[in-house]
């Protein structure tokens, strides 16, 4: 009877801990709680192309599973909950797997020159390097005149050196909602694709919010 009491307490504490920390998970994770009384409760985690669930059965069995958008099973674990600390440790493994398998949208980088000609050539070569390195960037070449209608869906704008004097105008166009950077002549004029890629990486551009501490 005592064991059953502690089992019920641990199960309820585990549910409250899992769902109560939802604001500390990555902000793109949609976390929902569903009661299946008297059989148990289910917490789901939807994250881009990944769906995860943790079923807390009334008999103390926990089932963790993760599927991709094609319903392929990526992760499955079931165990008997013996303590809150044990459940928390196993949840961290579940959470790491959930975020690791996610295919986040690419970071969209606009490379802008006066008419779009040199930026198109540069962008094509840069895309080849990005592909070789398996990076999640999309490079979009534009002429400066196109910037007004195209900046809303990007993560950063890089201006070719010949139009660097237009940086204040570019910042006014985007109203400081998108970072604007100027590529140096030593990078752009020498077709130093790796140099620009290093600039993008070192700027720490991120489309997703940093994960909270859970």
Automatic annotation (TrEMBL):
GO terms for biological process: phosphoenolpyruvate-dependent sugar phosphotransferase system. Coiled coil: none annotated. It comes from the Bacteria. Pfam families: PTS_IIB. Residues 106-210 form the PTS EIIB type-3 domain. Keywords: Kinase, Phosphoprotein, Phosphotransferase system, Sugar transport, Transferase, Transport. One of its GO terms (molecular function) is protein-N(PI)-phosphohistidine-sugar phosphotransferase activity. The modification Phosphocysteine is found at residue 113. The keyword Transferase applies. The keyword Transport applies. This is PTS EIIB type-3 domain-containing protein. It comes from Thomasclavelia ramosa. The lineage of its organism: Bacteria, Bacillati, Bacillota, Erysipelotrichia, Erysipelotrichales.
């Amino acid at each position: 009877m005592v064991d059953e009491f502690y089992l019920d307490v641990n199960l309820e504490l585990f549910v409250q801990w899992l769902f109560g920390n939802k604001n500390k998970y990555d902000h793109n994770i949609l976390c929902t709680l569903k009661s299946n009384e008297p059989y148990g409760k289910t917490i789901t985690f939807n994250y881009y192309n990944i769906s995860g669930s943790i079923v807390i059965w009334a008999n103390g069995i926990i089932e963790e599973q993760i599927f991709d958008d094609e319903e392929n099973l990526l992760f499955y674990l079931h165990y008997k909950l013996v303590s809150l600390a044990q459940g928390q440790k196993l949840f961290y493994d579940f959470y790491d797997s959930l975020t690791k398998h996610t295919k986040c949208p690419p970071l969209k980088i606009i490379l802008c020159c006066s008419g779009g000609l040199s930026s198109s050539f540069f962008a094509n070569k840069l895309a080849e390097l990005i592909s070789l390195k398996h990076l999640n960037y999309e490079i979009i070449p534009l002429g400066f005149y196109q910037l007004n209608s195209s900046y809303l869906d990007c993560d950063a704008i890089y201006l070719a050196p010949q139009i660097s004097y237009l940086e204040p105008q570019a910042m006014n166009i985007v109203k400081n909602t998108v970072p604007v950077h100027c590529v140096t002549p030593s990078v752009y004029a020498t077709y130093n694709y790796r140099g620009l890629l290093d600039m993008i990486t070192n700027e720490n551009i991120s489309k997703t919010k940093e994960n909270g501490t859970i």
